Amino acid sequence: MIKSEQLVSIGKIIKPHGIRGDMSISFSVDVFDFDELPFFIIEIDGCFVPFVVEEYRSIAQTSAIIKLEGIDSDDEVRDFSGMQIFIQKEYIENIEEAEVNADFFIGYKMSEKTKGIIGVITAIDDSTDNVLFVVHENDEELLIPVSEDYILEIDHSEKVIYVDLPEGLLDL
Fold first, then answer.
1. Over 92-116, what HEC string results?
2. Which residues contact 116 (CB under 8 A, 6 or more apart)?
3. Which of 56, 85, 100, 126 is in Cβ range 3.0-4.6 Å of 104 for a Cys bridge?
4. In whole angstroms, what is the distance from residue 74 CA to residue 80 CA?
5. Strand order in the sheet with 151-155
6. What is the pLDDT along the chain (172 residues), one digit of tens a residue?
7. Residue 23 contacts residue 57 (beta carbons within 8 Å)
8. 40-44 and 47-51 as β-strands: parallel, antiparallel, unpaired?
């Protein structure tokens, strides 16, 4: 079973392209080698479903036309319009240099410079202009701004984000 913490959103399906099941997609992350991907993953009714890509044509750096196996008409593509496209994190190249969506870090631990591990990132709150990591430790929920100003280091192999937070932020 595919779990959300194993995935990173790379973009979304925009609309049908033609009548044979092709779809326009836009990318929010472009740090993967398409030739090495066995499939794209789409969340359908709360389940992550892999789809083999029959065809892939890059249109620009942030968009492409794809044809997924088993999707053969523009009507079927319309059902997918607006859905997020995911890949497994293991297929991301050069994570340190990439501009990835904050959702990529769900499942990472957060370690504060003076307090140590403060919890695990369980969600991203992007309901306002200030995007926040939602960090849980025991029954406590902390909201930490997603800001390069606070991030000291990211250890992808251990899945830990090291931060130096302003005094008092954890007391809010």
1. ECCHHHCCCCHHHHCCCEEEECCCE
2. none
3. 100
4. 10
5. 140-145, 132-137, 116-125, 109-112, 160-163, 151-155
6. 788 878 877 888 999 999 999 999 988 766 566 667 788 999 888 899 999 999 888 887 778 899 999 999 999 999 999 998 888 877 776 555 455 677 778 889 999 999 999 999 999 898 888 899 999 988 889 999 998 899 999 887 788 999 999 988 887 6
7. no
8. antiparallel
Tokens of 101: 């969506």
HSE, side-chain direction, 13 A CA sphere, residue 75 = 0
CB proximity list for 86: less than 8 A, separation 6 or greater: 7, 8, 9, 10, 40, 41, 42, 43, 48
Question: The pTM is what?
Answer: 0.59
Query: Which of 96, 78, 66, 95 has the alpha carbon at shortest distance from 16?
Result: 78
